[in-house]
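fwd from M.: "can u put these together and see what the complex looks like"

so here's what she sent:
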Amino acid sequence: QVQLKESGPGLVQPSQTLSLTCTVSGFSLTSNSVHWVRQPPGKGLEWVGAIWSGGSTDYNSALKSRLSISRDTSKSQVFLKMNSLQTEDTAIYFCTRSGNYDWYFDFWGPGTMVTVSS
Amino acid sequence: DIQMTQSPASLSASLGETVTIECRASEDIYNGLAWYQQKPGKSPQLLIYNANSLHTGVPSRFSGSGSGTQYSLKINSLQSEDVASYFCQQYYDLTFGSGTKLEIK
């Protein structure tokens, strides 16, 4: 069955770089796209960025200068790197799957909490 | 960017009631809209896609409708397990509505 799971450090210092991994199973990264969505504590959902099935990427315009998403198809993993972290980047980070033509998110990982604090 | 305005922000209803949540887009999104349910401490779960298509396994008491810039999610015969936050999401720049927190009266 389709599964996604996020992993990464729970705590990052301000101005440092966040590195997260999304490991997927039950589908191929060359058939579906994977997105990152984040949710600050008690707040709403914010789309962060995506790597499409063809390998191209798109990023939230507000985060674009600090963000990079890549993948290793042989390991079924997608990577998020975000630099210059600030306290407002504290959030639960989810990876989620979409199709290639209708961009709704049909499967989600459980999420990983990232706290930016010294 | 397309703005999504979701209302109400919170809602309290009795068991068995019908509730409606709305999302308005700042421009026509041509039915490119999904609805999600998020229970406390859990990841969002897809309920409706393409404005009115029910995702696999979702109870039929959930339904979506709308067109153009106006969309709604209706929950018939409210159950205790429907206590959650609900979010709309449009496909064009992938933005979400601000959410509706649903409680039982």
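replying to her w this: Strands of chain B lie at 4-7, 10-13, 19-25, 33-38, 45-49, 53-54, 62-67, 70-75, 84-90, 100-104.
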